[in-house]
Amino acid sequence: MKDVSTQPIAETITPLGTPKKDGGGDHHNFSRRYRFKALTLVCSFILLIIGGGWLLHFLSKKPLQPEETANTPLPAETVNAKNTIEPPRGPPPDVDPARLEMEKTNAEQKLTEYLEAKGELDHKAASEWEDDTYLEMTKLGRQADVHFMEKRYHAASELYERARGLAGELTGRADATLQRLLTEGNQALDDGDGTLARRNFSVALKIAPADTLAQQGLKRAETIETVMRLIGSGRQHETNNALSLARSDYGKALEIDPDSEKARHSLDRINGLIKEEQFQQLISDGLAAFHRNDYKIARTRLLKAKFLKPGSREVSDTLSQVDQAIRLSAIDKLRRAAQAAERSEDWQKALKSYVAVLDIDKNLQFAVRGKERALEQIHINRRIHFFLAKPQVLESDSQLKNAVLLLVEAKEITSRGPLLMAGIKKLEQLVEVAQTPVKIAIESDNLTRVAVYKVGKLGRFSVHELELRPGTYTVVGTRDGYQDVRQKIVVKPGPQSLRITIKCKVKV
């Protein structure tokens, strides 16, 4: 701790690599001895009151306080919002040296765990995104250091543990904080606030230096003011109907920042306006030529207009009846091809036909709806095929949830053909198997503490039965004075009998 290095210390705080456990019996005996001494002190206090008034006055200002034992929780008034602690008073009197050494070892282990957690947070610049919690954590660490140097190791251990707990909370919030910073940074970009955007993305990169979104956001933040000025200038030109100048400004803004949605939308809008202006001029020239019987010029102008708006009824009505017949024939042919493809559930072919129709006339609603229907079917079938091809991914809770949601979505489709129904049925079977728990029996020795990652602590036992969903799990056994043991088990779906043994046998 930074503050400890500036204080006079009597002992160096050295983190341990391996924790040691102290016995509960020594602490209990210590508490009983200390309570007896406290009773003796109270009796002496009564005698001293009888012995002299001056001594009564002195003791009324400095009453004896019984030392806090390891099993007595801190009073509520000392555990407040600021986590203040009782000033260190040195080690308790008459403490068993062996017990004191065990408490020191435990405190050193807690210190190691805390420093490791704090180091990870410092690497992610936690002080810049969680000021209050980080400051509280470091405060507890400094308080623990003081207790440690005063050889009040039990109190130090408790505070190191509380500090480590806060560190764990901060670590758990890192991903959410990253997403918040990215969101706020993007919002700042939308608002044209380059300073705020740079700050958010810079902190985000400290949490995740390789995050591409943060990197891109920081790069955009360097030019956002220039981009916003160009967009503002373009809008002013657009208001004045200077469309070419507006397009130039929007184009420059998009060139500087290709990811700017405002610049892209503005450029698309102005291109649309220019396109509309050109279209109207071609229609006017075509109609004028038509009225003076200059059909060659009229057709040329109208075909150019049609190129700008392929589905324009205004252009189509002015073109020849032959062109109209050819157009209608092509549409009808594509419609029948799309319908046949739908009946055979060839949705890629159906999509191609509907897109071809919309190239001729983008306003034909049967093609718009058909395209949407084809895209929906293609998307659903691709996702179902993914799970059918890789059923092992259902061992993941998130993927299993996605599969369940996919089934709900697929069943809401009104036009379900035989192929889609077959895929839904197969996926339902896979989901059912993946959701069915398998019985597992774990044998131990009533001495080893057993825990299963992703499940919880099971405690000590001879035989423990539980049900686990198909997947991969790690079973860990711990015992004081023995090496930890761990075993990875793979729970396969379907009826089976799995029995494993977890015992700590090797002494340390």
Characterize the structure shown.
By secondary structure, the chain is α+β, with helices and mostly antiparallel strands. It has four domains: 169 residues, no CATH class; 87 residues; 115 residues; 65 residues, Sandwich (Immunoglobulin-like), CATH 2.60.40.10. Helices cover 63% and strands 8% of the residues. The chain contains 18 helices and seven strands. The strands form two sheets. Strands 3-2-5-6 form a four-stranded antiparallel β-sheet, with no helix packed on it. A three-stranded mixed β-sheet has the order 4-1-7, with no helix packed on it. A hairpin with a 3-residue loop joins strand 2 and strand 3. Helix 9 runs antiparallel to helix 10. The radius of gyration is 38 Å and the shape is flat. The two termini are 31 Å apart. The N terminus is likely disordered.
Order of helices and strands: HHHHHHHHHHHHHHHHHHEEEEEEE
The shape, in one word, is flat
Give me the side-by-side strand order of the main sheet.
3-2-5-6
Treating each run of at least 4 consecutive H or I residues as one helix, how many helices? 18
Short description:
With 508 residues, this protein is of the alpha+beta class.
Task: For this entry, give a set of tags.
508 residues, alpha+beta, 4-stranded antiparallel β-sheet, 3-stranded mixed β-sheet, 18 helices, flat
Describe the protein's topology.
Layout: H1 24-51, H2 53-61, H3 97-123, H4 131-149, H5 153-172, H6 174-191, H7 194-207, H8 212-221, H9 224-239, H10 243-256, H11 261-291, H12 295-308, H13 313-318, H14 321-343, H15 347-360, H16 365-389, H17 397-411, H18 418-435, E1 438-443, E2 449-452, E3 456-459, E4 463-468, E5 471-478, E6 485-491, E7 498-501
Parallel strand pairs: 1-7
Antiparallel strand pairs: 1-4, 2-3, 2-5, 5-6
Helix pairs in contact: 1-2, 3-5, 4-5, 6-7, 6-8, 7-8, 9-10, 9-11, 10-11, 11-12, 14-15, 15-16, 16-17, 16-18, 17-18
